[in-house]
Each structure stands twice: as structure tokens, then as C-alpha cells.
Amino acid sequence: MKVLAFQGSPRAKNSNTDMIVQPFLEGARQAGASTETFYLSKLKITPCQGCLDCWMKTPGICSLKDDMGGILEKILESDIIVFATPLYNCTMTAYMKAFIERLLPLENPRMKIINGHPAHVMRYPDKNWKWVLISNAARPDQKCFDNLLDGFQRKSHVTGGGLHTPIVGTILRVSGLLMAAASENAENSILPFDLDIDWFFEACIQAGKEVVELGKITQETHEILHRPFMDMKIEEIFEMGSKALDVLLADIE
Ligand SMILES: Cc1cc2nc3c(=O)[nH]c(=O)nc-3n(C[C@H](O)[C@H](O)[C@H](O)COP(=O)(O)O)c2cc1C
To answer: Residues lining ligand 1, CB < 6 A?
Structure first.
């Protein structure tokens, strides 16, 4: 089984997003899968130009010649696709957006009602991928992911009626900045207390295993992945964040 992770943070390997993606992939490998991470900000993936050549002139082949050609070949040999992006302005980063636009050659322009949804039929109807969505946001309220999740669910339905690209798991991590803060040593940390979130990274490993072994993230693991990092009210979290910012900005403002 092949798992490909497309990581859309401009901060690439130093990102909070990668702190989720890498343990997830470790779990997938423990379950016997092979994995590969593509750091989208390091690749040349031009946004779709809307020429529709990949539909109407050269079916399945994009007219843009950049890194996406090789990636599409790898996608055709893969089983599980991980879309990972930090939350930017209530949605995905520009890198992830360009990448998703360039998946158009996988679809056929013909549409049908599939599974109750108007959907493009697949260019490769034998292919059945599983999609996983990973994100992290600075905000502490889970609702901040509504727009991102809705967009991915719609895309999953438009692509073959969701039958060929079901979303089999999500890790949508609020208070994402705390992942890095928790791993810093006490004197460098912006946190006024120790924060042990090893349980979260263990749940990311478990999620990767489950997607390979069971074809989905179980409800139990999903629940652990979305537990708050701290037992604090949102108002208290904002107050703590604002105090940390006062310290960080004291010398430069
Ligand atoms: C341009 C920009 C837009 C952002 N928009 C949001 C947002 O809408 N909601 C939010 O909670 N965090 C937002 N953030 C914060 C990031 O989601 C947060 O810092 C995240 O941990 C970055 O992840 P990364 O290290 O993987 O890049 C934004 C950050 C930037 C730079």
C-alpha cells in the first residue's frame, strides 16, 4: 500500500503541520505501507490556467510542464492521499490550492448524478483512493475548520461522487502553535507551564496505522485527536496568548 502526503505549509519541514503528518506516516509505515512526503512549497506547481486542454484536447494530460506531471504519475500508483495544510484565512494555503486545481486531469469532463451528487466521472474508474485531511490552526475553536472541511467534502463528491475519493479520516488540530511550544524546553517556551501532549502524537501514529489496516480513522482515535490541549476556557487561552505576545513583541514595538 502506498501513502502519499502532500504538505502545503510554506514552512515545510519546520511546520506545525509536519508535526502531525510525520507521526501519521510513521504509523502508516508501522502498518506496512510505503510513504512519501511532497513539500508543495519546494516544488514547481503553477496554478491551473483554465485552458481545459486536459479535458478537451489531450485527455488526462496537462499542458503545463512542471513538477505536477510526475506527481500525477505517482498518484496513479498510490492508494491513500494525505492533504495537509495549515489553516490560512479559514481555508488552505495557496500551495495546496494550486495543487488541488492541478488534479483536474484525473477527472473526465462528463458529469452524472452519482451518489445523489452532480459529479465528474473518473478518468481512471478502476482507481479508488482514500483521502485524509490534516490541518492545524492558531485559533482554539474547532469551528474554524468548517470552511476547509466543507470544501474538501464537496471536492470529494465532485470527484467521482465521493466513491473513488472518500475522506476516511481528518485531523483538524486547533491551538496548533502549542505543538511547537510544548516541545521547546522550559526556559525557551512561551508557555507559563509544562504541556505534555505526547498523547496527541501517539494518536497521530495510531491514526496512520488505522487508515492502512482498517481503511479509516476509528471514532475512538478521532475523539482523542480532537481533545483540547489544555483544560482552559477560550477566553483564558486568548488572555494567555495575548500575554505571550506582549513578551515577544516588547523589544521590537
Ligand atoms: C497568512 C496566514 C493566514 C492565517 N489564517 C489563519 C486562520 O484563518 N485561522 C487560524 O486559526 N489561523 C490562521 N493562521 C495561523 C496558522 O494556521 C498557524 O500559525 C499554523 O500553526 C501554521 O502552521 P504551519 O506551521 O504548519 O505553517 C494564519 C497564518 C498565516 C501566516
So the answer is: 9, 11, 15-17, 86-90, 136-139, 144, 176-177
